[in-house]
Amino acid sequence: MTDSTDWRVTISLGSQANVEQARQSFSEQEVEQDVRSKLGHNIVVGAGDSQIYLYAGTELAANEAERTAREVLGQLGIDAEFALHRWHPIEEEWQSPDVAMPRTEDERQAEHQRLEEAEAAESVDFGSALFQARAELPSHREAVALADKLQGEGYPVVRRWKFLIVGANTDDDARALAEHIRQEAPAGAQVTAEPAGVRLPYIPF
C-alpha cells in the first residue's frame, strides 16, 4: 500500500450544491473503498469551491478512482468534467501526464537548471524577487546590526523590528542566501528560505 499522492483527478462541477452532494457521497468512501479493494491503494479526497480532488499514488489508482467517481456522479445525475494531472517534483506544480519526467540525474539537473533560469528571468521581468530569505533575530539591536552588515555587502534588506527579509531571484538563490545569513547572524537567529511574501527588489548579481 502507498501513501503517495503524486497523481490527482480534478472533478469540476457546475455548482456548490453539486460539490456538497458529491463530496458527501465520496465521503461515504464509495470511491476509496472501491479502489482499495481492487488495487490496494488509498485515495485522498479534497474539495474546493467548485471542484473535488482525488489524490492517488499511481496513475492506475487515479484512473480507477476517476472511473468509480464517474459511476457515482452518473447515479446522482451530476454532470462533471474530469482532468488527470501528475505532480512535477522539480517544477513543484501539477502538470499533464504527457509532460516527460526527468529519469536520470543529468536530466534532473538540466530540468532544475532550466527552472532556475526561468525563475531568474521572471524576477527580472517582473522587477521584484520571487523568493526571499527571512531572518528573525533575538533582539531589535541584533536585527539592526545584521541589516547594516548585509546592506554593506550589497543586499537590499527590508527590516521590521526583529525581522529581516532579503529578496532572491530563485529558490536556489534563496537557500544559498539563507545559509549565508545563518553564518553572519548571531546565535538564536531563525533563518528560512521561502517564496516572497512582500514585493522585494530582485538581486542583479
Tell me what you see in this structure.
With 205 residues, the chain is α+β, with helices and mostly antiparallel strands. The protein folds into two domains: 89 residues, 2-Layer Sandwich (Alpha-Beta Plaits); 89 residues, ACT domain (Alpha-Beta Plaits, 2-Layer Sandwich), CATH 3.30.70.260. 43% of the residues lie in helices and 25% in strands. The protein is built from six helices and nine strands. A five-stranded antiparallel beta sheet has the order 2-3-1-4-5, with helices on one face. It has a four-stranded antiparallel beta sheet with strand order 7-8-6-9, covered by helices on one side. Strand 7 and strand 8 form a beta hairpin. Helix 2 runs antiparallel to helix 3. The relative contact order is 0.12. The C terminus is likely disordered.
Helix-strand blueprint:
Blueprint: E1 7-13, H1 16-27, H2 30-39, E2 44-47, E3 51-56, H3 59-76, E4 80-88, E5 93-95, H4 105-126, E6 131-136, H5 140-152, E7 157-160, E8 163-168, H6 171-184, E9 190-195
Antiparallel strand pairs: 1-3, 1-4, 2-3, 4-5, 6-8, 6-9, 7-8
Helix pairs in contact: 2-3
From the 3D structure, determine the CATH topology of the largest domain. Answer: Alpha-Beta Plaits
CATH architecture of the largest domain, please? 2-Layer Sandwich
The SSE order reads: EHHEEHEEHEHEEHE
Mind describing the biggest β-sheet?
Answer: 5 strands, antiparallel
Spatial ordering of strands, largest sheet: 2-3-1-4-5
Instruction: Output mean pLDDT.
Output: 76
Note the gap between the termini.
47 Å
Instruction: Give the helix proportion (percent range).
Output: 40-55%
Strand element count: 9
Task: Give the CATH H-level superfamily of the largest domain.
Answer: Ribosomal protein S10
Q: Please, how many helices? A: 6
Beta-strand level of the residues, as a percent range? 15-25%
Q: Which CATH top level class of the largest domain fits?
A: Alpha Beta
